[in-house]
Amino acid sequence: MTQRLDYQQQSPELFKKLVDFSMATKKPSLGHTLLDLVNIRASQLNGCGFCLDMHVKEATIRGERQLRLHHVAIWRESTLFAPRERAALAWTEALTQLSPQGVPDELYDRVRTQLSEQEIVELTYAVMTINAWNRINVAFRATPGSHDKAFGLDKAQLA
Fold it and tell me: pLDDT per residue over 23-79, tens digit each?
């Protein structure tokens, strides 16, 4: 599969605004580990190879265990995720695959037991951001790994 067009080159102003928005969503209150899991799960759901490749490499560089990375797709059945991570993954799925009924109260109530109101808002913006990146990279068929050197991802040691 080849890339359809270079969206960065075609609309550099909008690309920069999305990058700026994306950087603003990387909140320390959520932590890199949680955001890595969220980015990986949304990218799996959206079928975005470019983003999935990128975020698995970022998580690996930050020391995430390979088994946990493999278990993100089956997080409900896995015992490797803490309640806070499980809540964030459930929220990510609900916002990535919106149902006609919206986000159920039961899920919102469960997430509120693990995250503060501010963290829920920050997580929601983070999910919005990864979904935007997934959609543009899927639409224009961005090639996984094509920007590894520019993003410092060539340092990832994947076995």
Answer: 999 878 899 999 999 999 999 999 999 999 999 999 999 999 999 999 999 999 999
Q: Do residues 111 and 87 lie in contact, with contact meaning Cβ atoms separated by under 8 Å?
A: yes
CA 103-96-55 angle, 5° bins = 140
104: three-class secondary structure by DSSP: coil
- Rounded Cα–Cα distance for residues 141 and 1 (Å): 7
**What is the DSSP secondary structure assignment for residue 154, as one 8-state letter?**
G
Task: Identify residue 63 by its one-letter amino acid code.
Answer: G
Decide if 128 contacts 95 (C-beta within 8 A): yes
Q: Phi and psi dihedrals of 32, rounded to 5? A: -60, -40
> What's the whole-model pTM score?
0.92
